[in-house]
């Protein structure tokens, strides 16, 4: 009786615990392959005759297409909404009326710039369930005591409402309205293009009222094609063979959308284009004098179906003027520009979707998804080259845009970044993580062809490391690798996928797919076998980025002659050259001393790979040491350096907080290189942070610091110190030495 009586209570407790366990991962969302929660099907609102007919749009200084100042079209004029009494419920009504699934946030005080015209709504009191903003209680349409400095803005979700149908309540003003459809696609029609990845040519189709429809091409322009191609990750468009499509259209009757499209050519998304006049088609009548719209897009070099080997042999590749750094996936990162032979960043003042799109197209991607500000994708270290950038959207390069050469008041905390549209390559369909506690971790399983059929299998964990894990996380769109695993017995995965199907994987870290990395192919070799010994990863949306300050090294370098009897601790910790073992106790060692200041410019805190249980305690110095820094003057001399405290205020765990730095002063033991046997001459002095990619970072290109060093036997000069990748290719080639973090310990 007692057991039966309390069973419902236990069940409730278990359900609550389950909900809490699931809730902790809700912010991670659902990556590809995980089903989304079911949504209610959209039903077009039925408005009473006395409801004011309005249309909405998001305008202003936008950094995403699904955000902006709320503007209302009423009485043949566009106006704004006052932020008085505005709530997330009102934002919800706005976003749903525009066809978005929900509102994410809202912003008062004209965040997206001041609007013009009348302020149509003030003191809105919405419940969030109204079918249109006009049904929310307010002071009355057009009655307001606000100024445009109080214009409200909203951010809507990326997802659209399934089955959304655009209802034009103002047919006489269609040219003033923005396009609102559920989805857009390029559908390959010709068999030669259906097999290609990515799809570059086909019908342009919009999804309206849950049905895919073609667009009549009678009013279609090249500007429209430019926007469609940009949305799908292509920087440009080209002509196509219209005769073939005419033959196809005769055989299959198209279903046309009711409207035309009118883009100016500099929009980042179709939703920013205007509606064209409605196509007046009678029943059973095709597009009068026209055909369905076809676009043919030009992919960027990284996504071209066949590499242009002939072009590369005939012409030397020019040094690019723009690059992206610190991004988790292809097509995103901090924007850096080359000026006077040195790479620098762009200040985010006035940074917009228009300028970001110019960057994306210049780099061979499509239009910009988002223009990011505030060092969101990490901070640079060099100069700030550009400020207050303003583009028309048609420039070939961001360097052609107007900008303020003075970057006064700008710091790297304001570095601008972009996220670009890239072609859908389908890489994520041939890879999955299985058995993990959440979608961001698990055993790596790949889809390969075996004996004429596709099968899932595991990856051999021999030589599995950080760079391979980085490629996996990038391929799945899950950010950066946070940990790598060579045993996955705690992630059982699919039993049918236990067999090893890929071995000998070696990645450089820049590949878009694991299949692009070096591997054994069909000749598998894996002593460990699959199953519990298969490779695994855990991914994270952010990562640290360790960067050495070269100016500190250059300014603090000096020599010291120290007696051997004072270097006993350093000798025991291998901080002297190998020849020191033969040196008598009364001899001197010549030490090249300098300070090191390591910054964490990434998006998450740096934590040592080794846990407390594996730290080495040195009785002589009475401290623990971690092997994450290598100093090199020709032979690699390994130093063990004390890590500072985790927080900037010197307390807590060991590591480096975002935006902070860790300084190893020149007067600390082992903060030197033993140059006692070094002959006078000119040298390249190198410091490598995070050798052999032991710890995941968002950017490994800046882990090497190089200086020119002149030693005359009595004095030393350190000059031209810089981080790897901070100078032009031509200048960098004058500094021989390591090109990456791969270091062989000696």
UniProtKB/TrEMBL annotation:
Sorted alphabetically, which keywords does the UniProt record give? Basement membrane, Calcium, Chromatin regulator, Chromosome, Copper, Disulfide bond, Endoplasmic reticulum, Extracellular matrix, Glycoprotein, LTQ, Metal-binding, Nucleus, Oxidoreductase, Repeat, Repressor, Secreted, Signal, TPQ, Transcription, Transcription regulation
EC main group: oxidoreductase
Is Nucleus set as a keyword in this record?
yes
Q: Which reaction does it catalyse?
A: L-lysyl-[protein] + O2 + H2O = (S)-2-amino-6-oxohexanoyl-[protein] + H2O2 + NH4(+)
Q: Which cofactor does it need?
A: Cu cation
Q: Which Gene3D superfamilies does the record cross-reference, listed alphabetically? A: SRCR-like domain (3.10.250.10)
Q: Which SUPFAM superfamilies does this one have?
A: SRCR-like (SSF56487)
GO BP terms in the entry:
chromatin organization; collagen fibril organization
Q: List the disulfide bonds.
A: 82-146, 95-156, 126-136, 263-273, 391-401, 507-517
Q: What PROSITE patterns is this protein classified in?
A: SRCR_1, SRCR_2
Its principal location?
A: nucleus
InterPro entries recorded: LOX-like_protein, Lysyl_oxidase, SRCR, SRCR-like_dom_sf
Q: What is its EC number?
A: 1.4.3.13
Going by the entry's taxonomy, the superkingdom of the source organism is recorded as Eukaryota
Q: Name one GO molecular function term.
A: copper ion binding
| GO cellular component term of the entry, any | membrane
Endpoints of the signal sequence:
1-23
Q: Share the record's PTM remark.
A: The lysine tyrosylquinone cross-link (LTQ) is generated by condensation of the epsilon-amino group of a lysine with a topaquinone produced by oxidation of tyrosine.
Where in the numbering of this chain does the SRCR domain appear? 56-157, 186-298, 322-421, 431-540
Q: Which residues cross the membrane?
A: none
Looking up Pfam families in the UniProt record yields: Lysyl_oxidase, SRCR
Q: What does this protein do?
A: Mediates the post-translational oxidative deamination of lysine residues on target proteins leading to the formation of deaminated lysine (allysine).
UniProt-recorded name of the protein: Lysyl oxidase homolog
Q: Which gene encodes it?
A: loxl2b
